[in-house]
Amino acid sequence: MQMLSIVTFIHGREVFSEDFTALCAALTRAGYEVDPIVLCDQRGGEKFPASCRCHVTPGTTKYARILFALEHARSDLVFFIDNDITPDVEAFASFAGACIAAGCAAGWGRIGSTPAPGAVPGMIRADKRLSHDLIRPLLWKTRTGISIPGQIFMLNRILTGELLGRQDTVFDDLTIGAAIRGQHLPILSSGAVLGRERPCRTMGELICQRRRWARGFSQVLVSSRGHRVFPLVILHGLAYHFLWIPFWAVSLFLLIWAPVPALILLAAVILWLARFTVRELPWAVLYLALFPGVHCIWSATLIRECCAPADHKT
To answer: pTM here?
Structure first.
């Protein structure tokens, strides 16, 4: 019987999700021997299922916990899932089987958003459409990708455990992806949506998230300087956060000199971002209009972090 280690993370006073228990039960019914692991900041009064091994790792980042899990997992294949993710059990089980068959060092799928009303969740759905359905798959297919979806992924601890750096970071997904790319390890990138996450509900929450991402990216940027993956780190930043510049430059140029093709281009991009559904059209338009400002905030935070003295970094 194939064993799978499944790891989830509990932060602060976060409530343990029963979806994790249901996922483990479904994998057991599918014929796997499951090794469930819960890593938490603190051990309060919360009770976890008896089958779960709970480890308290206070004051550590998610990346440090990932390294801890790789050392303590009973299976060579270690699956990670954030506690606030709602997994698609059937897709996850198929993904686990595909990882076993492929013998890969790492694997991941796509992450969707749980349905939520409002402009910010709508723009985030459009952003995921661009980043998860186009940018990340395209970069990995062209052998330049270094980003993995940190919400759900798999690592083969035999193939990756010794390759991951021990320098702590808050940008675990990019750090892991860069290590995998640097060693040209085999990966499995599934097109299936393995789970859904709750999107940010307000602009303030979204901006705080992107500032946090910029701080993490600055760590990866500095730590990779001088290594062969450094150009790929630069490419990642350009692809994810500066693509809007050439898009709007071309669109505005065409609007001046060839307005009909420009309008056709804008309409096609908006429809694609909206997944060709009418209800998503307003959010796709808002995304194109407002998200460049979010990327500018990310860029300003990155510049500040890279220029700040080491003892003054946030």
So the answer is: 0.89
